[in-house]
Amino acid sequence: MGETKLSLVKDNRWSLHGMTALVTGGTRGIGHAIVEELAEFGASIHVCSRNQDDIDKCLQEWKNKGFNVTGSVCDVFHRDQRQTLMETVSSIFHGKLNILVNNAARYITKNMIDHTAEDISLILGTNFESCYHLSQLAYPLLKESGYGSIVSISSIASVKAHNVISAFSAAKGAMNQLTKNIALEWAKDNIRANAVAPGIVMTSLLESVLL
């Protein structure tokens, strides 16, 4: 394996060696980049995706790079699958978790008047409810680690109105507020919470929408 980012940084306070992380939706786009960044700094990571083939492809790629990454199938829209995912993570990381990255998302482009009940349920369930529930499930693992961090991938659409993504924007706005509440309530347990709100990023998720 070549030089990692950590080996190029003189200040070892950046090291994530010995840290564990769960990244949802970690096989594509922003999630994939997050996994690689964490791995470059020495973290052990578990990823989930709805597609086993995507997981297998990425795990082989990361193994070739010398990264310590495991993965399992989970559609975070489903509550029972979220519970199974966290049980898997707890088993792999021996009851401790340092970093939870709530990244998995779905995206529907329709005028507000055209959103169906099913559309709204899917978007809110995937983009917000999963973030809330996975944070709840991760809480004892984050607390047990002694140093916990939750990073939720929001969107610029959470603070600025855009056409045809009203449900998506609302879900990300709710994610922002949840992040504030987590930071407030769990600071006493040495758990930090932050939301990152990127603008348009050309990932496979966006490409599928544009097509």
From TrEMBL:
GO terms for molecular function: oxidoreductase activity. It comes from the Eukaryota. SUPFAM superfamilies: NAD(P)-binding Rossmann-fold domains. InterPro entries: NAD(P)-bd_dom_sf, SDR_fam, TR. Pfam families: adh_short (PF00106). Belongs to the short-chain dehydrogenases/reductases (SDR) family. SDR65C subfamily. This is Uncharacterized protein.
